[in-house]
Amino acid sequence: MYRQFCLLTFALLITVSAYSQNCTSDTLRIDTTAGPHPFTSLELNNDDCQFQFAIVTDRTGGHRPGVFMDGVRKLNLLQPEFVMSVGDLIEGYTKDTMELQRQWEEFTGFTAQLQMPFFYVPGNHDITNEVMERVYLERFGQTYYHFIYKDVLFLCLNSEDQYRGSNRGTISDEQYEYIEQVLAENEEVRWTFLFMHQPLWILKDTERWVDVEKLLANRKHTVFVGHHHHYVKYERNNGRYFMLATTGGGSALRGPQLGEFDHVVWVTMTEEGPVLANLLLDGIWDENVVTSASSDFVKTITAQRPIRVEPLLMEGAAFEEAQMVVKIFNDQNVPMQVKWDQQFSWGLTGVLSAPEMTVAPNSVDTLLVDLKARKGETALSNLEALPLKAEVSFDTEDFPDLSIPFSFNLRPAQKYLLEQAPKRVKVDGKLKEWANLPYTLQDLPGESLNARFNLGYDDDYLYIAARVEDDQIMVDTAEVSWQQDFIGFVVNAEPAAVSASRTGQGWYENSILFTVAPETKELPASIFYEDKLPEGAEYRCRVEAEGVYVLEAAIPMSYLTERQGENWRSIRFNMVVQDRDGEKSENGWPRYQFMPDWRGGENFVGSGLFFR
Fold it and tell me: Read out DSSP for 361-424?
């Protein structure tokens, strides 16, 4: 294997040498005379040791079609000497070899259009099981390797070498031994670049990564990773470590100062070391676009939830006009400025009590929004939300130009009743305790797919029951649940004032997220996010009859009381069903939900709140 890496290095050097020999001269010739000149100097920035390369980052994990190919076109305009990657190039997460080959054919079709070499690095979407690794090796030969160019070592690693998946990356003993050997044999290089997918320095149980850092500590080195779809620069271990944003992967795209943007990284290797420029597809920023200090400040502010919209809950099914209340909390020791931007809605108009506000240090202020239905009294289900955006900034010397955006969709929400279960529910997937299932999902096709559900509670559990009628149930244990027909739910047990505005950031880190493809007589159920369930939870999802499957689940009451106390009042709930035999779009198979996806642009404050 090591001989193959040496051959790769030699081949690259031969290519570069052949190109240099075709250049007739690197000498600048210009006629000059005494006196002033129309240039600053004739000392060109063309040192023989200097070169440029680019890095692309996550394309997948909720990819947005067309973005990566846009990056390819712009790389061809920029003309780097070669392009590096940090993984998550296909959606993956399957054992279907035909589907994997289709996805890789699509991606290699992109890289084939690059006018310079492209170097592969695997991410968790590229290798998550033995089948995916085998396909990767058949196509690309190695999952980790190295090369040297102009006395710089490029070390491409595999953070997925034990198939542990997202946020559980590792460096195995075998890979560590390879790294140790390569670094020992290349002690005199002028710089070392390391590329891998997951930011192992912020993860736990990463096997030999700590030992790798020890090997790097006394070398001039820079590390590049992706995975979190969020740019942060770290200064650690006598080096600079960069977690890159996206080149088409899922992102809220809230802007450079929050580290959420589509970009390629442009690296110029100089005698002093690498110089980085983040080339956004709509702009250029330097490497300090987000530092660990500014990132920590933003995290602190967002965690404090400075803007809190109180849900406007309706007992009836129609709306004409009412007032919404927005509370603004400034927990900092400096003034906070808030600029409001009310967007347009066909369903509602709004009048703000103040377009701009300055909130004193360690104080609370209030914004009032007078909502009115444009066409008079209107059914809640027909109302389009009114978008409200805010830019929050602080009078601070450390981050004088930093503004943090927040956005909310305002509209009245239906207040749902959470009823007490008439008797103890046995979680067996038979639904005999449920007299009716009154709630349905939105925009269901009806004949080919229908779904209904209900919720209940007793002293010990919160219960969930659902029945799905699907003319063609498609399940396969070789696939993860979200690649099949599945049913899923989200439960947030925080107080209504908090849960009403949750947007599912961090993959519902404050909620229970659970999906399951039903069991059949031949196949067990396929579960995803089972680790999100609290201890003591129960579930059963099974095919009941031809074209019908059911779900029952029980969430321990302790999950609610730990968050709201014994006198808990509410939960926020959403349910989703995927129809694998529906017409597939660029975003995947059709999914139907009770309320808009909390992570999506149609989510509105207070949707899916149930009160006992």
Answer: TTEEEEEEEEEEETTSSEEGGGPPPEEEEEEEEE--SSSTT-EEEEEEEE--EEPEE-EEPSSP
Query: Mind listing the pLDDT tens digit for each residue in 203-257?
Result: 999 999 999 999 999 999 999 999 999 999 999 999 999 999 999 999 989 999 9
Alpha helices in 45-96 (DSSP H): 67-78
The span from the CA of 140 to the CA of 133, in Å, is 10
Report the candidate in 137, 147, 88 with the shortest Cα–Cα distance to residue 117. 147
CA distance 565 to 382: 36
What letter would DSSP give residue 519? B
Please count the other Cβ atoms lying within 10 Å of the Cβ belonging to residue 146.
25
- Measured between alpha carbons, how far is 605 from 357 in angstroms, rounded to an integer? 22
Name the amino acid, one letter, at 505: Q
**Cα–Cα distance between 596 and 603 in angstroms, integer?**
5
Helix (H) or strand (E) holding 293, with range, is helix 292-303
pLDDT at position 26 is: 63
Alpha carbons 86 and 267: distance in angstroms, whole number: 14
* Amino acid identity at 256: P
Rounded to 5 degrees, φ, ψ at 135 are -65, -40
CB 275 within 8 A of CB 268: yes
pLDDT in tens, 530-563: 888 999 999 999 999 999 999 999 999 999 999 9
Find the helix or strand (DSSP H, E) in which 52 lies. Answer: strand 51-56
User: What does the alpha-carbon distance between residue 254 and residue 261 come to, in Å, rounded to a whole number?
Assistant: 7
The pair of three-digit structure tokens given for residue 212, joined into one six-digit string: 């790798």
For residue 472, what are its two tokens?
A: 């063609």
Who contacts 600 (Cβ-Cβ below 8 Å, separation ≥6)?
none
List, for residues 508-527, the tens digit of each pLDDT value.
889 999 999 999 998 899 98
Cα first-last separation, the chain: 64
Looking at the chain, the number of H-run helices and the number of E-run strands are 10, 36
